[in-house]
């Protein structure tokens, strides 16, 4: 990409698409390291995870612990304030209708596809992950990891900028990060929010049921499955996070029960971005326009 800057900026930006795909794969490796799954050695997982974090801009130790909280609470209606974000959480239709008009408008605006899936993802990795604002004060090691990652990134950015030029570095690195962030956040969101996703109350929730009925199998073409590190087999991953990404497909193929989970095609995954609400009466996810008058301009 740096070499093509002298030829054509458009060629450089076009190359950001496959480069962003490689960065998504690096993030999946970091994700596996955070679960202690990629290597048998805990030390190897931690060191490779930290190294990956310099490419993904994601503080390894802080993200690892917060992600572990997500795994303990996903699709639990009574634990949505723990380990949840807008991409893996939802409101019930009853809660949505109880929102005051201004808050409801802001809630919907933040979840408009152009904002939630295009504008916000790069900001999460570039800005939000730079500050431990949502990290509990007693998570001292995790808060330190944020600052240590920032210091390491500043060193890398300064060195690379002096070598290739800060303008060239900004064009190349930012374009890659924007592509990877949009793809990565979309992957994460559609595997927890789709029409057939099942949400449970605290008394109903179990890790097995939430894995098999609350997460999806995103069936992708082979090349996209490779770039995304088999993360489409998300139901297998949630059932046992210690399974490395390179064994997820084999586990899925070996079990009849795992093959019965909700399956999404690439087209289904793109449509799933509009499902934000859990309808308790119908026991399924619904779109905003399914419970709002059509005259509403934000639908």
TrEMBL record:
<dbReference type="Pfam" id="PF00487">
    <property type="entry name" value="FA_desaturase"/>
</dbReference>
<keyword id="KW-0472">Membrane</keyword>
<protein>
    <submittedName>
        <fullName>Fatty acid desaturase</fullName>
    </submittedName>
</protein>
<keyword id="KW-0812">Transmembrane</keyword>
<feature type="transmembrane region" description="Helical">
    <location>
        <begin position="114"/>
        <end position="132"/>
    </location>
</feature>
<feature type="transmembrane region" description="Helical">
    <location>
        <begin position="170"/>
        <end position="190"/>
    </location>
</feature>
<dbReference type="GO" id="GO:0006629">
    <property type="term" value="P:lipid metabolic process"/>
</dbReference>
<dbReference type="InterPro" id="IPR005804">
    <property type="entry name" value="FA_desaturase_dom"/>
</dbReference>
<feature type="transmembrane region" description="Helical">
    <location>
        <begin position="144"/>
        <end position="164"/>
    </location>
</feature>
<dbReference type="InterPro" id="IPR012171">
    <property type="entry name" value="Fatty_acid_desaturase"/>
</dbReference>
<dbReference type="GO" id="GO:0016020">
    <property type="term" value="C:membrane"/>
</dbReference>
<keyword id="KW-1133">Transmembrane helix</keyword>
<feature type="domain" description="Fatty acid desaturase">
    <location>
        <begin position="9"/>
        <end position="254"/>
    </location>
</feature>
<dbReference type="GO" id="GO:0016717">
    <property type="term" value="F:oxidoreductase activity, acting on paired donors, with oxidation of a pair of donors resulting in the reduction of molecular oxygen to two molecules of water"/>
</dbReference>
